[in-house]
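Dear Dr. K.,

Following up on our conversation at the group meeting, I've run the structure prediction for histidine kinase from Corallococcus exercitus. I'm pasting the input sequence below exactly as I used it, so you can double-check it against your construct before we proceed with anything downstream. Let me know if the numbering doesn't match what you have in your notebook.
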Amino acid sequence: MVLFRTVAASLSLVVTVARLLTQPAQEPSRADTLSFAVIAGAYILTVVTGLRLRRGTAGRLDATVTVVGDVLIATGLVYLSGGADSPLTFLYSLAVIGAAVVLDWRGALVAAAVSTFAFTMLLLITRLTTPVDAVAVPAARVLFVLGSNALALVLIAVLSGYLSRQLSATGGALSQSEADLRRLGRLQQLILSSMPSGLVTCDAERRITFLNTAGSGILHADPGTCVGQPVDTLLPGVASLAPRSTRGELRVRTPGGNRVLGLSVSPLEGEAGALLIVFQDLTELRRMEEDLKRTDRLASLGALSAQLAHEIRNPLAAMRGSAQLLAQEQSRDVVVTKLTGILTREADRLARLVEDFLRFARPPEPQRRPVALDALLSETVDMLRADPLAREVQMEVRTPEALTAPVDPDQLRQVLINLLRNGFQAAGPQGTVRVALARAEKEAQIRVWDSAGSITEEMMGHLFEPFFTTRSGGTGLGLSTAHSIIHAHGGSIRVTSSPADGTEFLVGLPL
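The predicted structure tokens came back this morning:
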């Protein structure tokens, strides 16, 4: 309404100025001066109302003053443009419509009554102040004009009031619908951002249109850069799954490492060819399953190995005793002496192998006590610096904080020696081996890293199995024994390897 009044006043000003410019040059008449005064009053009313609206202080009183001002402005313009014969009497109708908009139907009827009263008083004053011989409009016509205008204003008030009520009801319903829609939109965004599962949508051209928060966390991807990219760049191989694949697994490489995803693919309703992909990170679950299977295999193998080693150790002791008796006879036969030495030496080697096997099969119960892990790591590394395998290998130790855990120091030192010597052999000359200690949630983590990254995907599944080795002369019991010791401590041991990132053994020990 403020904008409408501004436009109307501006148009009136333009018409008045144009009329003065088209007339011969002369002083503005009294009517022209009053016209400018009425237009100035309209501008002042508009500015005051606009300022109060901007400050948020405008209320029903301001609306009433505005409607009364519109009636007075219309009365002034009608007076200046001919009174009863004025072509601007429609301005009263605009004032009534404005009242219906800002003051509902009751305000429209009151505005119609005020407008009728103002128009009547205008005609009455004009008639009383005009000499009798100068009156050009008959009384009957004046009454007709008054009656027709009054009737028209009442009808306009009723109609505009009805339309105002309908508009108000429709506007309220629309506002409620918009609020509900915004609330549903916020709820949808909250649900999508709170989902623990990843969610990806793509269009018919298999380009990503949406990636939720959980999905970006699982895949270590930025949703802003992923939108518009082919879905195969984010989930390689997903296009090969059926459009209605209820369940499948996919291995993907992410900046955070290789991940195993369990996902389902279904058509996205409402858009032909579009897909909805929901996936979960199964990496930890599959790792736990592999650990459980490995533990079961090692437990079964350990029981069999202990029985087999026990059966071997007794005959082996008898064989070694017999060999020693033969050696004590001081035979002059050189061949007999040589063979007796070989028999004794090989019996000793087999005895050590059986002991290692028994240690793997039945590791002693850890004798736990609080141990400073940072000191244990430093001592073990210093001890191994003289190892021939450590020559020309760069060794790093990172223990940023003192950390104490209940462990068996001798058994943990044995695990560290096995892991470090494997790292030395894998890294080789000019390679790097790094040991780091850190505190994680409810556990201490020891990381042994080497720069080689030579463990293949095929070797991963057999790495902790006994007798599995990749170097000549190895027994294949080092990592198996380490696994048994860490498992006896209630901890975990995991490994990751790639030529680009190297190999890392992660040992987790409960605090």
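Two things stood out to me. The CA atoms of residues 24 and 32 lie 14 Å apart. The mean pLDDT is 77.

Best regards,
J.T.
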